[in-house]
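The instructor's notes for this session suggest beginning with a concrete chain rather than abstract definitions. Hand out the sequence below and ask the class to guess, before any prediction is shown, which regions might be ordered.
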Amino acid sequence: MRQASSANSAAPLVAIVIVHYDCLADTRRCIESVRSLSYPRVLPIVVDGRSPNETAHPLTGELKRFGGEVLFAPVNGGFAFASNLGMRQALAKGAELIWLLNPDTTVDRDALTELVREMQSASEVAAVCSKVLYAPREGAPTVVDRHRIWSAGATLDLENGRLSMIGNGEPDEGQYEAGYDCGYLPGCSLLMRSAALESVGYLREEFFMYFEETDWCARARRKGYRLRYVPGSIVWHHFSDAKMAEPFGVYYYNRNERLFWFRWGSPSLKLRVIGRTLLKQLPSALRARAQAPDERHRHLFRAHVMSCLDFLFGRFGARWRPAR
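After discussion, reveal the predicted structure:
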């Protein structure tokens, strides 16, 4: 843990929970950026989600020198499971705030300082999020790509079954420079109050990955908490939209989106989700799989089929593994 000066001794302790799964270069890059934070009291906790070949072991010594630690999950229970392990350790260490940070992010020097400042301004705020920009891609125009928005908070309409990340894909031209309340907060840079976590509960592990933070935010709002977007906190996401078109992402995103709306929607929306899955999306996926031109497409459409079937039969948790 970074040693605080006496002037900063009153700053809340922030645990930074980073879930690692077979992405050593990403996690190291994230940790390196975290080491440059201006905020004085941090406890980095990397949780290895049972990576193959134990890829997180080299991080143990590196984190120890930085005052942090590496936890090794007993099973690959997904992002929610690993995050919960890290958050329990954070609470045991006395952290007042917990920052969930994706391993494929890098952070601005003042990103955490800005989040904490916003959190301290109102006790009814359960969590806050950063302005998240796409990180520059190799070979892309650096200045342009560095200022393209990944998210500026997010909206959630439980009445009509709609959610979206605000500003996604837009150039950052100052249109989201005022903070505001959000329907939910994307989980790649989400600072939550420990007291709110204890009140709302941990991430639901049946999601495995995707929509677990959306569900947590919905539960926080139901308890009367607010969620805020903080434009002064800048985080870059080294994210490729193409990975969402891979079978692994297709399966978990589509399955969990249905689960989320079935859990949170009105009775009529729940019926629409079931009807749309059973009568439209499943038959379409079955036809596409039967007509797939090659093995790659068959694998992709199988992910669509299984996302429908597992939702309809109530099968959640770890159900799909990435091809290796």
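Then share the key points. Residues 45 and 89 are 8 Å apart (CA to CA). The radius of gyration is 20 Å.
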